[in-house]
Amino acid sequence: MSDIDVDAPLMHPILKNDYATQWMGIEVTKVADGHATITMKLRQEMLNGFGIAHGGMIFAFADTAFALSCNPHTGSEDSITVAAGVDINFLKPGIPGRLLTAVANRRQQSGRSGIYDIQVFQSVPGAEDEILAEFRGRSRTIPKRA
C-alpha cells in the first residue's frame, strides 16, 4: 500500500465526521499501512489547572494517531479496527503553544488483533523535539455496523 502525504487535515476517511479531532485542530501529515503521523498545537483550552497539557488531551491525540494507523487510508466497506485496550505513560509536561507530533507504528498483526506503538513529541524552541508520552494500543478488527 502506498503512503499518502497530505497538506490539509482530515484526509483519512475515518476523520470525515470526527468532530473531536476537528476541534483539536489535528492535521494528518502522513498515513500508510500501519503508520500515521499527525500534528496539533497545544492550545490554552487543552490545559489543566496546573497550566500544562491535560492528560486527556494527550491521550486523545495519541488515540487519533492509533486509529489512523489501524484503519486503511482507502477506507473499508466491511470492517473497522478499534481499540481493545491501551496504556499511556506521560514522561514530560506538555507546554502551552508547543507543536505536538504523534507517530504511530504497527508492531505486530495476527489475525484480527494488532499491537501499535505511538510516540508523542513536543517541539522545543532552539532544540530537538522531546518525547512527551508513550502510548501502546491493542487493536481488534470487527465487522462494520450497517
TrEMBL record:
Q: What keywords are annotated for this sequence in UniProt?
A: Hydrolase
Q: Which InterPro entries match?
A: Acyl-CoA_thioesterase_PaaI, HotDog_dom_sf, PaaD, PAAI_dom, Thioestr_dom
The record places domain Thioesterase at 50-123
EC number(s) reported in the record? 3.1.2.-
Q: What are the protein's GO molecular function terms?
A: hydrolase activity
Its domain of life reads Bacteria
In terms of Pfam families, this protein maps to: 4HBT
Name assigned to this protein = Acyl-CoA thioesterase
Q: Which organism is it from?
A: Paeniglutamicibacter kerguelensis
